[in-house]
Amino acid sequence: MARLTPENEALAGRIIARYPRPKSALIPLLHLAQEQDGYVSDDAMTHLAELVGITPAEVLGTCSFYEMFKREPVGKFLVNICTNISCVLLGADDLLAHAEQRLGVTAGETTADGTFTLEGVECIAACTEAPCLQVNYRYRCSVTADSFDGLIDDLASGQLDGEIPPHGTVARIRQVIPARSRRRRRLARARCCTSVDGHRQRRQWRHLMAVSDAAPIITARFGDPEAHTLDRYRQTGGYEGLRKALSMTPAAVAAEVKDASLLGRGGAGFPAGVKWGFCPEGVWPRYLVVNGDESEPGTYKDRMLMERDPHQLIEGVLIAAYAVGCAQAFLYVRGEMALAQERIAAALNEAYAAGLVGRNIMGTDFSVDVVLHWGAGAYIVGEETALIESLEGERGMPRLKPPFFPAAKGLYMQPTIVNNVETLSNVPWIITNGSAAYTALGAEGSRGTRMFAVSGHVKRPGVYEVEFGTTTFRDIIFAPVYGGGISGDRQLKAFIPGGASAPWFFEEHLDLPLEKTAVDKAGSMLGSGAIVVMDETTDVVRACLSLVRFFSHESCGKCTPCREGTTWLERILSRIMAGQGRASDVDLLMDISDNISPGIAWPPKQTTICPLGPSAVSPIASAVRRFPEEFAALIDAAVAARTSTPVSITVGSHG
Amino acid sequence: MADDVTTADDEIVDEAPEPVVTRKEITLTINGVEVDADKGELLIAAAERHGVYIPHFCYHPRMEPVGMCRMCIVEVDTGRGPALQPSCMLECTEGMVVDTTSDVTTKAQDGILEFLLINHPLDCPVCDKGGECPLQDQTMAYGPGESRFVESKRHNEKPIEISELVLLDRERCILCDRCTRFAKDVAGDPLIHFINRGNHTEVNTFPDEPFASYFSGNTVQICPVGALTAVPYRFKARPWDLSKAESTCQTCSVGCRVSVESSRNEVLRYQGVDIDPVNWGWLCDKGRFAFESVNAEARLGEPLMRSGADLVPVRWSDALRAAADALASTVETHGPDALAVIGGARLTNEDAYAWAKLAKGVLGTDNVDAQMGDGLPAELVLGLPAATIDEVCAPGGTVVLMGADIKEELPVLYLRLRHAAVNDGVKLIEITPASTGLSRYASLTLVHRPGEVAEAARALMGVAGPSSDFGGVDSDTLAAAQAMLDRAEGPVRVVVGRSSLAESAVFTTDATGVLHSHLDDARFLVALRRGNVRGALDMVLPRACSPGGSPSTPVGRTSPQPGQRCPPPPGSTPPGSCRPPSRVASAPWCSSVPTPSATSVTVTWPAGPSKPSTP
Asked: What are the chain B neighbours of A69 within 8 Å (beta carbons)?
């Protein structure tokens, strides 16, 4: 296909102009090329290389790293069925098999008429409504074989063309950074309002009401379908936190957040206020980067915050930027989250038009530019240094810490604060109500509330905002207002307490409070707030394979133990599952794990650059230690079968 | 030929004198022994300096570390208990305790080696790298005897041609980022790149866009496995069969240190040798692969004498006698001034001296020259206060570039200047008629009209000249350049050469004179194109000098002593005055190109191992 059209080239110029360095625009530009042609052609990459001032090989290096960019034409509808843990527990394998049969293709192929391309993909962040899929990045949840057939019929007949754009288009609303003229402001407002209203929003979520004893903080507006608009947000106290912050000194704002002991909600749980204080004195400019690349299997909270209450996030961003002294903030949203991108784009357009973002915010001399940036499918970009690399237009490969701690050497080697969406969404409330009100909630070491996604084998999967420390795992899995108990009243086998990277918990851990210190001490983590429940019928080896395959698939390939080790683990597990296990396999799995994460302990040590490698070890160590008999059963059967019937498998180092 | 030449890779023994640094800032403990280290020194380098070798693949001392292969992880205790850290990324700190032999370290390193090997084809018997391969060496030393990997390995099409000179066998690649880092960070030609992700990552080019870098051969040399191989060397020899002799590359005047490697009396490859003052181990492809001319069919292998329309092979004695007779009869008939001698620009100093002695002492002619290209007067080349490459590239300095496109003519000097500009904060101010390979790294590029370089130089120095528009240089750029020179800390360095051989050397000499007169304490690096022109000039191959004597203008080639200033070359003018170009054009040092009216004699050296090389 082709180079960019003149219109798209002009648009590309405007996108490039938003960034301090042109290469940062590369991922949005690759999306633009894909939107134009349905895939990213070699000619388009050459054109982008010219526009950005790099070589085509560099464009290809970035393009080929990200899952969403297709270098060959695909069907009009890209059907992505999630095959990760929460969906697998609820029948995703069967759904994919059905889809293959229905469409007459195997996963990864396109139908002969060029209408559908089917893919089995990793977690797409709708875990509480499993099994789920996306068609051109529009969600369909709790999909059954029948509803899948209905969806395919509707798509084929063109009934959904209004809702689902052809492959290549992700968000249909673009951020417009307006010129500072009144006329342009009005135009921007008109455009964004029309677009939002014209968007047919599907009601996907079911159990989203906050049911904590305490009043909810960040999900307070979730019941209101119009909460994402500026008017409604302001009617419900929106931007009052910013107004109050602007009346304080930046240092006082930072101190308030530090006093609130707001723990980072991305996974590591580092106090946000402390992080803000790490920027070296007198080094400018500083940047704020918002991590909205939520991809940890089982996790489903940032997407909701971005879709349902984008202004709350933006307000948090503005307050943080004010406290830290950032000239520019980048809101990095996961590539597959089309609706979140649209909602944030619309909200930013409204906020710019209302003088809440941009120059002289609320009439003060505080100015900050907030740029919506979006990814293109790479879990590893959720790691903060990889996120920064990605924002620089590079392959999302983590940097080594030390020396590249973002607060000192981050985006463009300048001081950069990277905060998670949920973390920043708490900030307006903290400023409005004060840190004392915040620390009154929760437990020692874990203040405030926290969103937890409960998925897998529970009766009421959902996302719940609960007070830290006052609720136990037993409550959130079994209480009628939360998970409601195990599906079919079966027995609990295991549960993942904090996303796929976390070591598993079992029956004896149910009474631990949802509180960082206690969970850390028990040998796992609250991580990203994703609780995945497995009942007694769960095939542990299959579940383990699902998780390890995810990490192997998402390894960036930068460091040896992760690149080679996770893949090796996955292949051994696949072999065991396929009835080709060997007696030495369990020991080998554990020894490979030990070479990735020496000692297989918690908190993990690592031979890798970033924690992705040890994350792949968590499910293996948990499963092998707790359920060795399940591995042994598969392996013994395979060994017995081989003894009676010789089979040939590839053996040897020269294969 | 000596066998024990080291080449530019990990095992380099740096022959340059150790820089005078007091290494006593930091004390740390490595394997129970207290050692000292520089502030900011990487642990892997400090350990090696103290005789503790830490295995590694991605670390290369001439490139930024990336900590990717993880082979060099060792247990380090900085006060918070021992933890595994990559020693290539870790700077030494006071009191650090390092154990490179602990059980944890050994287990981790063994694990990494096993990971690297599981997908490696282990085709050492047919691999060019076998015998000098870090992966093979590490495996021999520490590796497991058997593989636990029973799965099938990665397979790739092999080899793929990433350029006309370099082949890539991707299944051998261990993704250490050396070649791609070199291409991007050292050469500035990111035409090879990591493609795809995770276990599918590979190095490759953009489709139909080859790795057309002037420096591609270096990637073959620094590849720690046999993934990148050079077309001229592939399957030609085993490393242990090679005879190696250290020498100097003659392709241009940079003087890169090379190891000439041959087998069965045939030169098979050049490898760069890492020396601090010049090439840091790098070579350009022209230098690296020009050795093929040694055995080229078109090369003369014996003396030829013209007989009618044909050139007929003759014996050396006959050829020499015929030449001697021709010389003698010419002197007898027309006098010695009818003779001219052109010494080759690639001669050694000894050869050049012999030529000069023959011409001036025996034949009695002063019509001698060694320059086939630049045609710059010896007084200019030798008389300017000289700067070494290191002095030009010293961190934080300001450099004026005037003349040839360095990337095209002196590629390895381009690498040094590029590094200085990108990594060491050196400001480059170019005065050029067209954009050059260095323009994108230059702080300012003053583009002048062809032939008006002297006008541009005058404008830059703020002295009046005949041109009212500064030779076509944009006045804003000019003002910025003047401001930059005013702000320069320390003396300005000037790289000077002739931008185009199609225009008179006078323009260059004139402009050089202007800069020399007006830039206080400036030092000059004269960028001559051909191999050893400078040596030939030193050995008085230019006219108007007697063999073994000194140039007719008594200026030294060494830098002036403190308080002593070199006499300016004739083209220069005292500060505040301005001389019209016509006077310069008539200066005696501008006429070193021999006139074609005289009879010239050229003798071609035979091919073979006796080919002269610089000492």
From this structure: none
**Interface check A574 vs B, CB under 8 A:** no
Check whether domain A182-200+219-255+267-439 has CATH 3.40.50.261, yes or no:
no
Query: What is the pLDDT, as a whole number, of residue B490?
Result: 84
Measured between CB atoms, which of B122, B197, B206 is closest to A653?
Answer: B122
Contact B70 A557 (CB under 8 A): no
- Name the residue in chain B with its Cα closest to that of A567: B199
Chain B residues within 8 A of A612 when measuring between CB atoms = none
Q: What is the mean pLDDT of chain A?
A: 91
Burial B58-69 (b: 16+ CB within 10 A, else e): bbbbbbebbbbb
CATH of the domain spanning A540-644? 1.20.1440.230
Q: Are A612 and A555 in contact (CB under 8 A)?
A: yes
Structural domains of chain B, with CATH: 26-117 (3.10.20.740), 158-295 (3.30.70.20), 378-530+562-590 (3.40.228.10)
Domain boundaries, chain A: 6-63, 77-157, 182-200+219-255+267-439, 444-535, 540-644
CB contact under 8 A, A560 and B148: no
Nearest CA in chain A to B58: A559
Task: Please answer yes or no on whether B149 and A568 come within 8 Å at the CB atom.
Answer: yes
In angstroms, the CA B415 to CA B400 distance is: 16
Question: Which positions 13-72 of A are in contact with B (Cβ < 8 Å)?
Answer: 42, 45-46, 54-61, 64-65
- Contact: A588, B148; criterion CB under 8 Å: yes
CATH architecture for residues A444-535: Roll (3.10)
Query: Cβ separation of A608 and B118 shorter than 8 Å?
Result: no
**How much is the ipTM here?**
0.92
Residue with tokens 């009154």: A440
pLDDT of residue B577: 32
Give residue-wise pLDDT tens across range A194-236. Answer: 222 223 333 333 334 434 455 789 999 998 999 999 999 999 9
C-beta atoms of A598 and B108 within 8 A? yes
Alpha-carbon gap: B75 to the closest alpha carbon of chain A (Å): 11
Q: Are strands B266-272 and A416-420 parallel, antiparallel or unpaired?
A: unpaired
A647 falls in which pLDDT band (50, 70, 90)? low
Return the CATH superfamily for domain A6-63. NADH-quinone oxidoreductase subunit E (1.10.10.1590)
Give the per-residue pLDDT at B563.
32
The domain A77-157 is placed in CATH, from the list 1.10.10.10, 3.30.1300.10, 3.40.50.300, 3.40.30.10, at: 3.40.30.10
Q: B376 to each of A121, A218, A242, B221, how far by Cα in Å?
A: 68, 76, 70, 36
Task: Tell me if residue B33 falls in helix, strand or coil.
Answer: strand
Alpha-carbon distance of B520 to B490, in angstroms, equals 10
Best B68, B90, B115, B441 residue to mutate vs chain A (most A CBs within 10 Å): B115
Residue A643, pLDDT score: 83
Measured in degrees and rounded to the nearest 5, phi and psi for residue B205 equal -100, 170
Q: Where would I find the H helices in A597-653?
A: 612-626, 628-644
- Strand A326-333 versus strand A133-135 pairing type: unpaired
Contacts of A652 in chain B (CB under 8 A): 147, 150
Q: Is A652 touching B (CB cutoff 8 A)?
A: yes
Chains A, B: CB contacts within 8 A come to 153
DSSP B553: S
Using CA atoms, how far apart are residues B549 and B536, in angstroms rounded to an integer?
Answer: 13
- Stretches where chain B sits below pLDDT 50 are 1-19, 544-615
Provide the pLDDT for residue B342.
Answer: 84
Task: Using CA coordinates, name the residue in chain B closest to A581.
Answer: B150
Task: State the average pLDDT over residues A551-555.
Answer: 97
